[in-house]
Structures are given as C-alpha cells and as structure tokens.
Request: fold
Amino acid sequence: MTFLSATLSRVKPSPTIAVTTKAAELKAAGRDVIGLGAGEPDFDTPQNIKDAAVAAIAAGKTKYTAVDGIPELKAAICAKLKRDNGLDYAPNQVSVGTGGKQILYNALMATLNPGDEVVIPAPYWVSYPDMVLLAGGEPVIAAASLETNFKLTPEQLEAAITPKTKWLIFNSPSNPTGAGYSREELKALTDVLMRHPHVWVMTDDMYEHLAYDDFEFCTPAEVEPALYGRTLTCNGVSKAYAMTGWRIGYAAGPVEVIAAMRKIQSQSTSNPCSVSQWAAIEALNGPQDFLPTNNEVFKRRRDLVVSMLSDIDGVTCPVPEGAFYVYPSISGLIGKTTPNGTVIENDEAFATALLEEADVAVVFGAAFGLSPNFRVSYATSDEALKTACTRIQKFCASLT
Reply:
C-alpha cells in the first residue's frame, strides 16, 4: 500500500514548469540554452506599482488580511470590471487569491462532485484538466483545430455538453495559441450555453489586455448578460502588468460561489500577500498608458516569430490575435530524423531533440491537448527570439 494519496495518480506535473526547469539546469551546466517555454513577460513591473509596494511596507501593511482580499483591492477590482468590461459586481462577489491558478483551483474544488464534467476546449492551458481531476471531476476535451485557428465552434461545444456538465472553462486570448474570439464568435458559443441552463462558464481572462491589430477583447457575461448569474469571471495582474511573481489573481461571480471559494482558501493558504495586494490596487487604479506601449513590443515580436517560423518547410504558424504565444503545427516534420538519429515521431520527440541538439526550449503540443504542435512564448527579447528562431530553422532544415 502506498503512503501517497490515490488522487495524485490522476494528475501529472506541469509540463511547462518541467521545460523551464530543464532549460535552467542546462544553462547552469554551461549550455547556451534559449528558453521559450515560460509564459512570463520580460518587462519589469512598472515603477508606480513597485513604489506602492514599498509604501505599503513602510506603512506597516504587512499583517494578515481578510482571507480573500482587502476591501480596497476588492473595490479596485469592481471598478476595473465596470470600466473595462461593463460588468457590475459588489465586493462580496469578489475573491482574491494567490495568483490566477489558485482562483481557478478554489472554484473547482468548491463546486465539483465526483462524476461532474467540465468542458475544456483544446488546445488548453496545461493545468485545467489536472485541476479538474484533483477536484474529483472529469475533464471533457473539445478539440479545436488549425482550420478554425484553434477556436471552438458552437457545434463542438454543443456535442461536448451532457447532463453531467457543470462548467465550461473559456480562455481568450488563449494560452497556448494566442487565439482570440471575436464578439460574434463568442456570442455563438454563449447562444449554446443559453440552451443548457445547468452549465456554468468559468472565464480565464488573464490575457485580456494583450490584444493586437484590430482584435477587441470581450468576456462571456459582457456578450450575453443573461449568463451573468452563472459566470465566474477570472483575471489577475500577472501578465499585462508584468507581476507574475507578485501572485495576485481574482474572480467575480455569484455570492454563494465566492463564499464557497473563501471557505476553501480559509483552510488552505489564507490571505494573499498583503504587500502584493496593495501593489495590485495601484496596478488596477493607476496609469494604464504603458499597456499599448508594451503591446507594440509584443506585436513586433509576434510578427518576427511568425515570419521566421512560417519560412520553415513542414511548419505552419497561424497569426494569433493576442497573448504572447504562437502554436505552430509540425505535421510536415513527423517521421523525419535528426542528425543525431532521433526520429521525430511526435511533438514531444521534436521538442526534446530541439532542446538537446539546438539548445532551444519549447513546450510540446501534447501537453496542451492538441498535436502535432509546439508552443513558443515570445515574451522575451527580440535578440533572443531571432537567435532561437534561426536555430529552429537550421534544426528543421537538418531533418531528413
């Protein structure tokens, strides 16, 4: 009999963390590895936000706080949701957690019973299915395709829903593809949900402000107000505000769900870092003028990566609407062999060989539920991206 919980047999470690860890180990060993695995902006946290944290420390705001967020931060979140999304929430409808991941985990733990199903469009963020499994639920994967630019169709959503469905997890712009749903595309999905009143929607809006060209972000409860009562709108300050390490995520939704999430958090981590909460207030309430500036940088990097990867025979790289990822298909490379004799049987073999033979770390597509692909994060310098993409081009050209 094993000492460990049987629940752990249902889940696996995060592949994105594994790739980042492996790349760091090789760098430490002296290899010139370029890591394109981590979804983390290379920009520093804006100075006004750091100043707010320093001021909070100086003022002694370093004690325990309310379990799921200080009133001032909940007020700032309510103001943000009204300002940016046209959604009205009261402070008792808001939960603040230690990053967006904890918010999603708390919600699933608080609502799922054994046998409950959660529809997850693929490609998906690696943690969605495993969090569902940890909470005792069953992930139902609805696979999109390159032909629809990795976006779920209404017909696919309809086919995935059963009487056991409790949630749809919806992420736009997407990690790992960067695909963003237009208002019309999202309305077609919410029309399906309106026909199934037992299904709730959990939105992951973490990449809301990272939108390019003429793409305009929208969120389900904004597009279909009738879904407001069964929507949990989730977001955070990690990506747009370059605050990944500060660990602040939040959700807004029905009072009873928020109260249940608070109960989970009260018996697990308790409150998020007090100093980070005060910094997040400044992020949400302070100047937002740096966002378009940062987006121009991300857009330039996107175009660079898409252009260089699209030049590779056997690789197809769609242009994403948002986030800071591309998700190229390598269907034309499957079955080929590397100079070291490795057969590219699948995208995991491709990513492994790319790291070992070309010193570039990417995440293989199977980790996100759709193959044969790989994810590149372009949230790093132009120089690193040019060098990495040149290495990928040479590696692919060397395959026979």
